[in-house]
Amino acid sequence: MMDFLLHIEQMLPTLLENYGLWIYAILFLIIFAETGSVFMFFLPGDSLLIAVGALCSTADNVHLHYMGILLIIASTLGYIVNYQTGKALGIKYFNNRSKWFKPEYIEKTYCYFAKHGGKTILVARFIPFVRSFAPFAAGSSHMKYSSFMLYNIVGGWIWISLLLGVGFGLGNLIAVVFKAF
Q1: What does pTM read for this prediction?
Q2: Residue 95 in contact with residue 103, Cβ under 8 Å?
Q3: Are 79 and 159 in contact, with CB atoms under 8 Å apart?
């Protein structure tokens, strides 16, 4: 199972062949899980999105626009869940009696997210481990929710669109090269 999750981008054609349109639900769940939990940071978000874009360029029944909309929703919802988890549980783990986190570090995190939280949520989409941890930290530091949502939606849209677009372009380029031979 772990091998499947770590190398799913290589198995996309097989998944499409075996599960057909259920591939939309499978990919939704993977992107949602990666962005919605601190503990799912190992999932291959970036490479998966590029591979999905390439798949959309070659498969007739997987459409780039539908996939893009679906995965933007998955990544946005995942960040919301991760933010709310951080808001609910973060204080319990980062309290003044913590063995691992000093109170001054917690205060620095609060100040950091008050000042730079939006940029962090936006840029974190492109940094694998940070992508899974940033919304949790934003929630635990009580980043303003309206600001979080703005950067969450914009960041999710840019991340998904850019990587699906790169994959789609590469998929088309490879198809053209192979047709030339």
Answers
A1: 0.82
A2: no
A3: no
Six-digit token pair at 114? 């008050």
Name the DSSP letter for residue 38.
G
Could you read off the pLDDT of 74-131 as tens digits, one per residue? 999 999 999 999 888 876 665 555 666 666 666 677 777 777 888 889 898 998 888 8
pLDDT of res. 46: 85
- Give the Å distances, CA to CA, from 96 to 106, 124, 165: 9, 27, 45
Residue the block writes with tokens 């909309």: 69
E strand or H helix at 144: none
CB 22 within 8 A of CB 64: no
Contact 166, 53 (CB under 8 A): yes
Q: How many CB atoms lie within 10 A of CB 96?
A: 8
